[in-house]
Amino acid sequence: MHLLKPIGILLSLTLILTTQALATEGNPQNDNREEITLEAVTVTATKREGSVKDFPGNITVMDEMFMETRGVNKLGDLVRFAPNIYVKDTSSGGSIVCRGISTIDTSLFSPMGLYIDDVAYPLGYMVNQDLFDLERVEILRGPQGTLYGRNSESGVINIVIKEPDNEHRNKVLFEASNFHTVRLGSSFSGPIVEDTLFYGLSLQGYTTYGYYENTYTNDDDVAGEKSLTGRGTLRWTPNSDLEVSLNLDGAKRNLGISALRYDEGPNKTGRHEVSVNEADRAYETELGQSARVKHSWQSMELTSITSHRTFDRDHLFDNDRTSVALGYSELDVDMESWSQEFRLASKDMDALSWLLGAYGRYETIDAGIDFTHVNPLLASTRKGDSKDFGYAGFGQTTYEIVSGLRLTGGLRLDVSENSGKQTYTPNTGPVSYKGNVNDTQWLPMASLSYDFTSHVTGYTTYSQGFLAGGFNFFSATSEDSFAYKAERSTNYEAGIKTNWIDNTLLLNATVFYINTSDKQVREEVPGAGTGAWKFTNAAEAHTQGVELEAKYNPIPEIQLIAGLGYADSKVDDWKTTVGGTAVDYSGNKLPWAPKYTYNLGVAYTHQSGFFALADLLGTGEQYFDAANELKDNGYRIVNLRLGYQSEDVEWSLWCNNLFDEGYAVKKVNSAAGLAMVEDGAPRTYGLTFNWRF
Prior knowledge:
Blueprint: H1 4-25, E1 42-43, E2 50-51, E3 59-63, H2 64-69, H3 75-78, E4 85-90, E5 93-98, E6 112-116, E7 119-120, E8 134-141, E9 155-161, E10 169-177, E11 181-193, E12 197-208, E13 213-214, E14 225-239, E15 242-256, E16 260-262, E17 273-274, E18 281-296, E19 300-318, E20 327-346, E21 352-373, E22 380-402, E23 405-425, E24 431-453, E25 456-467, E26 470-471, E27 483-484, E28 487-500, E29 505-524, E30 533-555, E31 558-573, E32 575-578, E33 581-584, E34 596-605, E35 610-619, E36 622-623, E37 631-632, E38 635-645, E39 649-656, E40 664-669, E41 675-679, E42 684-692
Parallel strand pairs: 6-9, 13-17
Antiparallel strand pairs: 1-2, 3-8, 4-5, 6-7, 8-9, 10-11, 10-42, 11-12, 12-14, 14-15, 15-18, 16-41, 18-19, 19-20, 20-21, 21-22, 22-23, 23-24, 24-25, 25-28, 26-27, 28-29, 29-30, 30-31, 31-34, 32-33, 34-35, 35-38, 36-37, 38-39, 39-42, 40-41
């Protein structure tokens, strides 16, 4: 009975939306209007080329033109235009929150998958990727384990890089803005041997002082960044049936991470100000190699993806966040991952389409953290490592029962064998322990969709997802607080996808309900002292919500976009202890989960090439702790852009966060119970220039 209510709600809303859409179908408007249509978007989200309508779920697609016009160069900025997606990017790490499914603040892994050219980027530190020289970004909500090699609990962001071909494409980017910020980029692609061998190269450099100042040292670049990213591709097509792509990518980053400040107490500072004695810094090095081989036959295609990735992060952080030399932490995380994926998929089939896949990985993590303090009783070190061997079989098939009625079913078998060990050394001497997190998961999905008309499609989807367990490298003190198990989710979704007025108006709506069991949470270790935390599977939770998206071209020169996401994430059962006192968090909101997100934008492009656009981007209230005591009330920012674009050149003047709205991206309590905060970006403005030749 517990599940019947959400299913009934979803089916009822789908019926209502569909009925209203059909009622308006017979009322065409402006039959004599000038023909302007929104371009059909081809996606590869299902690992077979198709349209947004073909995907049995909620998907948002944004192409290169959308990103360039709005000057979006970070994934966290791009997802502001997608309902119910939020990138947490803080000094302690990152994560992608989808439909209110968040994770532990210091967890290494994100519940939402991130792929770039079919290769997974699993670590939370990797999520806020630079965006440059892309074809499109596809955002899939809900578990996608029956389509993608590596499992994902809440969804997938699939970044598609432009493939080099016979066309010569060269591009130069220059951007300058306040806070001593400069971005330079260039990309080149084209044929080496026409029709057979192609190359692609891209390189981007970025430097900024950032918008934080250390009032103790008078440094104004304590949250700055210097980074260099690059990618190279060699593509070989000896015949029409075979394609081989070799990819090399890398990044080197020098990050200022001094952003956490006191919001109360004697060490309180103003917005974008810190007062610390240490020069907080993080250094990241990322390197990846991959090979993709595709072979086609008349009715099917075989794809092989082989990848190897390494990621290293070292950082130094002033723990007490004051100008007094009390203590600091040094963290080191090194990851190396090998993976192999095979996919066999149908092609050019009308009634039946299918995909079968196999995936395997071997992943090692070395992680350690040293706490230094003037009081030796508070100093400690932790050194640990883990080895993860995982493999999966997955598949999905869609059958058109009658014209317009499609049934989709999928299944994933996911097996992981993860072993870890650690040595914790407090002032009393070293303690060594180890653990194993082995798991086998069967993950089904089913969907039914129907084309009520050529421009109205409704669907319902059921799916299961999970977030793998792991190890608490940064605060464990014993075997009991070292390992934690997987959390699981059951997802119900219903939606409608429509287009109207000669395909100039797109309206999509989705409702969903998610049950999460064995929720991974952070709890104190009783009697172990300050800073001793364990990760457990102590909570049950649910999320329910709505997503609305619209796009409208009333005349060729104007485009309107709008999106709204609402996700009510609530704890159903979680009883624990705080300071030795029993507490009950049941009924509280899940942390790191904005209640809503929205966007509203208008773009005007004159026939001469001059353009102007304005965007309103909003994020609702969210809590940063289980007790729901640390909260941001929500915020909205306005972005403006004026410029000129032609086939070869684009330049623009822009201002983001026009009204300098203040907001928090992180809040946490100090050991003394005082609130600390990391501020969001202030008003920024600058000039961007793109040249294609």
